[in-house]
Structures are given as structure tokens and as C-alpha cells.
Write a sequence for this structure.
């Protein structure tokens, strides 16, 4: 096959990876054609040095240790937000009274950046794992709750009436119609929730913490170990991209009939 | 009868109001009579209200707000200036889209706030560090929403302009930009939330003034009422800005009302 034809067929892939490779090469080659002043050199690192630092930290177990702590906070917080967010969203979607009662809190808390509660959570729950779990929970619960709620709200009234006519009670309506109908919404909410949860882990570990990847980043920055900062950032980036893609895959499998909405993380 | 009709008509408002009043009242009563409040770890609405009044009369709160909003406005303005053109070009030029999309999507998906410590150390604890952080977080919603807006431009309109001999500039200014504006406003709403995160994290991490600093300092010194005042003010600002954007969205594109989940 001719190169031009190969290029035409895989244009998006070639250009996409090409651009990233180009950026990395330019970044790597900066020290060769430009001598940074002493002050700037302190803050500067190259991809090769980041990779070397990554390898070193991987070998001596530092990454494993911090990763474990971060993963526990992430999974526990996300799990808690699913346990709370789904039932609450379901109930809010089915009961107008409850919806009106809870609406002010949900709207207000959803508009506020939840990070602002971090000092409060640290004060109440200490600098241990619990304040991290709860900040992850605070970030992740609202996308799940609101999306479940919208999914239940958009349920087909005819289906509800059919199930009702056959003598279903409210519990059965939820189980048979409302919950399955809102699955695509819940998955979309999960995608948003994962992003918020990772944000919660990162920021939660920046402050008053002595473990976790966020702590690794913050302490490396204080000690001017810029390559270690980028190792941490790269790990978080890779995790977010992988998790987002996984959920998107799930989303498109479960909801192939739904038009794809604009990208929103 | 009239009262009942009024109640049914504004049921939503009444229930919301009752719920908030009930919560505040029970918070106050429980901490006054059932478990007397330990001011070190907990506080109650009356104490928060007193702190609120004091802060509003003092000058520190206003100074903090001014400092934070200065950084926010700079970062946000640059996000608009950079994000919209990048999104336009990405939407219109296929090869630019192919080149930039994977890179920018990866950045958008990742928690860039992880770079906060580095930014603060490189750019300093002043306006520059925070503004750079706000820019970094807020630019992506602008890029991707502008991009989505251009992509969804009606091909018929483009053909009309072409048929009447319009050039590239007419195309951008008369068709693409107007049909993209609703998307940009929606992007602005997302960007506000992300920008506020940038300000708060930047000021929690290292600052000597600003609303985020005020909150974390109140927490460090166990001044709970002051911390709640800061949190409430920040929530109010976030709610007002988000609501303004929602209104603007409805004004510029009424047909898109409530088709978005968040």
C-alpha cells in the first residue's frame, strides 16, 4: 500500500498520536537549544527524567504504597456515594413532596464547589482516611443523585400505568420500570462522578495528609522535585482517562440508542 | 380557600422554604437544649449569624473577595480568549481536530488541579499563580463546547453563504459563531464551577489573602462560625453565577431549555 493511502485511512490516529509525540519531543529537546536561567531550571524537567523518576519510585515501592491509600479513599468514597445517591435519586424522582423538600439542598450543594468543605471535614474527621473518603463522597454523590433523579423523571408514563394496572405497588414500579429506565442516566452520572471523585482524592490528600498520591505530589512540589510532581500527575491522568473510557464503553453498550450528548466531564 | 389555592400553586416554594426553616430551627434547638454546643468543634445558626454580621461590617471579607475575584476574572478572561478560537478552528478544520482532540480530551478528563502545588510554587502565591490555575481548569469547557457548537452548525446555512459568494470570514462571523453561542454559554457555566475549584484549591494550598484562605485559616484556628460564613458566601456566589448562566442560556437559546442533565 502506498504511504499516502495509509495516511488517508488512518489520518485521525496518525495526526492524534503524532501531535502528542511532537509535543513530547519538543519538550525533551528544550534544554538542547535553550539554556534556562538558574531559577527556571529548578522548575524544569523533561519527559525522560519523569520516566526515570517513575521507574525509580515504582522499584522502591513508593508508588505502590501511596497508590493503595488513594485507591482505598477513592473506592470507599465512590461506593458510599452510589449507596446514598442511587436510592435517594430514585425516591426523589418518584415523590414530588420529597423532591420539593430536598431540592434546595441538592441544588445549592451541586452548584458549590464541594472542595470548600474540606477544612470542615478535616476539622471534624481528622487528617486520616475518613476526611478523604467523605470529600470524595461529597464530590461524587450529586452527579449520581441528580442523574438518577432525571432518569426516573423521564420514565415513560405509559409503562408506569401498565405496571400499575397489573396491580404493582410503588416498590415494584421502581424495581420494574423506574430503575431500568434510568440506567443510561446513572452510567452517565457515574462518569461524571468518577471525575469528581478523583478530584476529591487529589485535593483531599494535598492538605493535612501524610499518605497517598496527592500527598506525594504536594510534598514533591514543596521540595522542588518537579519530576516527581509530574509522575503523580501522569498517574492521575492515566487513571482518569482509563476509567472514563471504560465507563464510556459501558455507556455506549447500554445506551446505543441514545444520541451522544456534548462532552462534559 | 384563597390561601389554599395559593399554597397549591406555590407548593414547591413552600415546601422548600419549610424544609430549610425546619433544618435551621432544629439545628439551633438541638445544639442549644439537647447537646449543648462545644464551640471548638461545632456551631449553631445563631453564632453563624453573629459572625456573618461582624464580617459584613468589617473590611477583611471584602478585601478577600476582591483578591479572589481578581485572580478569577483574569484566569477566566484568558480562558475565553484562548478557548473559543481554539474550539472554532478545531471544529472547522478536520486535520486540526484530529491532531488536537486526543491530547486535549486526555487533559480535560484528568484532574489538572493536581498541578496546583507546582503552579503556586512556579508562579507564586499572588494573583498570577491562581489566575494560571483558573485558566488551566476553565479553558477546556470553552474549547470543547465551542467545538461541539461548530460541529452542530446547520450545513444548509453554510451552503447558503457559499452560494451567495460569502468568503471564509462571512462564514465564521455570520453562521458559525452565532450558532455556537448557546454552546459557549453552556461551556461558561461549566467553566465557572471549575474555575472556582481552581481559586479555592490555590488559596487553600498557599495564600495570604482571599476567600479560600479565609476559610482554611478559620478552620486551622477553630473559628467555626467564621468558616461557615466563608462557605456560605462562596456557595451564594457559585449559585448566583450558575443561575445567571442558566438564565443567559435560556435567553440565547430557549429551545435548548433543560435538555442537559447537569
Amino acid at each position: 500500500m502506498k504511504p499516502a493511502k495509509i495516511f488517508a485511512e488512518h489520518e485521525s490516529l496518525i495526526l492524534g498520536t503524532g501531535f502528542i509525540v511532537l509535543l513530547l519531543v519538543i519538550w525533551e529537546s528544550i534544554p538542547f537549544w535553550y539554556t534556562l536561567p538558574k531559577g527556571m531550571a529548578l522548575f524544569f524537567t523533561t519527559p525522560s527524567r519523569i520516566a526515570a523518576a517513575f521507574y525509580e519510585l515504582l522499584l522502591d515501592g513508593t508508588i505502590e504504597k501511596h497508590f493503595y491509600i488513594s485507591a482505598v479513599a477513592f473506592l470507599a468514597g465512590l461506593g458510599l456515594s452510589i449507596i446514598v445517591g442511587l436510592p435517594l435519586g430514585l425516591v426523589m424522582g418518584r415523590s414530588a413532596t420529597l423532591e420539593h423538600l430536598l431540592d434546595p439542598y441538592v441544588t445549592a450543594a451541586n452548584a458549590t464547589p464541594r472542595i470548600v468543605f474540606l477544612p470542615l471535614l478535616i476539622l471534624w474527621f481528622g487528617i486520616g482516611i475518613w476526611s478523604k473518603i467523605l470529600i470524595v463522597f461529597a464530590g461524587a454523590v450529586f452527579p449520581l443523585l441528580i442523574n438518577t433523579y432525571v432518569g426516573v423523571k423521564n420514565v415513560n408514563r405509559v409503562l408506569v400505568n401498565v405496571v400499575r394496572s397489573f396491580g404493582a405497588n410503588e416498590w415494584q414500579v421502581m424495581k420494574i420500570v423506574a430503575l431500568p429506565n434510568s440506567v443510561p442516566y446513572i452510567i452517565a452520572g457515574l462518569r461524571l462522578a468518577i471525575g469528581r471523585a478523583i478530584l476529591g482524592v487529589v485535593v483531599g490528600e494535598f492538605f493535612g495528609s501524610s499518605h497517598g498520591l496527592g500527598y506525594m505530589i504536594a510534598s514533591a512540589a514543596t521540595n522542588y522535585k518537579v519530576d516527581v510532581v509530574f509522575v503523580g500527575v501522569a498517574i492521575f491522568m492515566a487513571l482518569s482517562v482509563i476509567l472514563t473510557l471504560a465507563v464510556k464503553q459501558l455507556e455506549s453498550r447500554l445506551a446505543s440508542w441514545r444520541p451522544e450528548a456534548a462532552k462534559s466531564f | 380557600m384563597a390561601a389554599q389555592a395559593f399554597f397549591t400553586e406555590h407548593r414547591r416554594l413552600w415546601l422548600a422554604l419549610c424544609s430549610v426553616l425546619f433544618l435551621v430551627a432544629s439545628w439551633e434547638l438541638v445544639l442549644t437544649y439537647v447537646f449543648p454546643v462545644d464551640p471548638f468543634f461545632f456551631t449553631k445558626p445563631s453564632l453563624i449569624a453573629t459572625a456573618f454580621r461582624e464580617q459584613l461590617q468589617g473590611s477583611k471579607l471584602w478585601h478577600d473577595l476582591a483578591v479572589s475575584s481578581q485572580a478569577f476574572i483574569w484566569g477566566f478572561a484568558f480562558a475565553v480568549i484562548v478557548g473559543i478560537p481554539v474550539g472554532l478552528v478545531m471544529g472547522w478544520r478536520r486535520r486540526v481536530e484530529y491532531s488536537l482532540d486526543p491530547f486535549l480530551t486526555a487533559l480535560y478528563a484528568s484532574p489538572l488541579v493536581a498541578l496546583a502545588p507546582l503552579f503556586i510554587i512556579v508562579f507564586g502565591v499572588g494573583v498570577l499563580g491562581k489566575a494560571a490555575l483558573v485558566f488551566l481548569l476553565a479553558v477546556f469547557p470553552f474549547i470543547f463546547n465551542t467545538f461541539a457548537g461548530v460541529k452542530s452548525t446547520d450545513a444548509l446555512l453554510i451552503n447558503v453563504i457559499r452560494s451567495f459568494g460569502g468568503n471564509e470570514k462571512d462564514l465564521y462571523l455570520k453562521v458559525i459563531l452565532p450558532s455556537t453561542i448557546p454552546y459557549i454559554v453552556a461551556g461558561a457555566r461549566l467553566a465557572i464551577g471549575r474555575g472556582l475549584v481552581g481559586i479555592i484549591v490555590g488559596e487553600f494550598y498557599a495564600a495570604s489573602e482571599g476567600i479560600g484562605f479565609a476559610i482554611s485559616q478559620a478552620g486551622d484556628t477553630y473559628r467555626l462560625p467564621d468558616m461557615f460564613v466563608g462557605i456560605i458566601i462562596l456557595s451564594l456566589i457559585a449559585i448566583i453565577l450558575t443561575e445567571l448562566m442558566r438564565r443567559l442560556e435560556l435567553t440565547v437559546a430557549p429551545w435548548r431549555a433543560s435538555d442537559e442533565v447537569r
Q: What stands out?
A: The mean pLDDT of chain A is 86. Chain A has two domains: 1-34, 45-254. Residues 1-34 of chain A form one domain.
